[in-house]
Design a protein that fits this description.
Blueprint (H helix, E strand, L loop, with lengths): L2 E6 L3 H4 L6 H16 L3 E7 L9 H5 L16 H9 L3 E5 L5 H13 L4 E7 L1 H15 L4 E10 L3 H13 L3 E2 L1
Parallel strand pairs: 1-2, 1-4, 2-3, 4-5, 5-6
């Protein structure tokens, strides 16, 4: 069975930085354990903005500078970053909520080697996790897409739950 893990935006700014939450901090040990125990290929996304972030459409709607390229807040959480290096995992820097490059890469892999399931974990459930899960569902409609809800956190606990319900309606398996 071919399994892939996608670790979404486990960056300092979303954990304990500009947009950090207690819920995000709480999932870090679970995500680290998931990465360590995972048998299969692991991919990472990294929210990536430039200094002009506040001038972008996203910046106008969320006027909090975060994940500015090459800053501490943009980096993956330290232990997660080390695990990515150890396994020589691909990291997709993305300027938007979802990563078209990640979806294209996995779609390309699927064309030469069957992918049975793709599991997602990370931050934020209600923005980037849901965006990537639905992109992957569209790119690979016959591949099982799974979200481990215990390894995700949303902007608020309520929006986390709403996102899980929305993904379940779109045939993303929620565990």
């Amino acid at each position: 069975m071919s399994r892939m893990l996608v670790v979404v935006d486990m960056q300092n700014d979303f954990i304990d930085g500009a947009l950090g939450t207690a819920e995000a901090k709480a999932i870090v040990p679970k995500v680290i354990r998931k990465i360590r125990d995972f048998k299969g290929q692991i991919f990472y996304t990294r929210d990536t903005h430039d200094e002009n972030y506040l001038e972008t459409q996203e910046g106008k709607n969320l006027p909090v500078k975060h994940c500015i390229m090459d800053t501490h807040g943009w980096q993956l959480q330290e232990e997660i970053g080390e695990l990515a290096k150890e396994r020589r995992s691909m990291i997709f820097d993305k300027p938007a909520f979802g990563s078209l490059a990640l979806a294209g890469c996995l779609n390309g892999i699927q064309k030469v080697a069957s992918i049975d399931e793709i599991e997602l974990v990370g931050l934020c459930t209600d923005i980037c996790v849901i965006s990537n899960a639905l992109l992957l569902k569209a790119a690979l409609p016959d591949t099982k897409i799974i979200v481990d809800s215990s390894c995700c956190a949303g902007v608020t606990p309520e929006s986390h739950e709403n996102a899980l319900k929305a993904m379940a309606m779109c045939q993303v398996e929620i565990r």
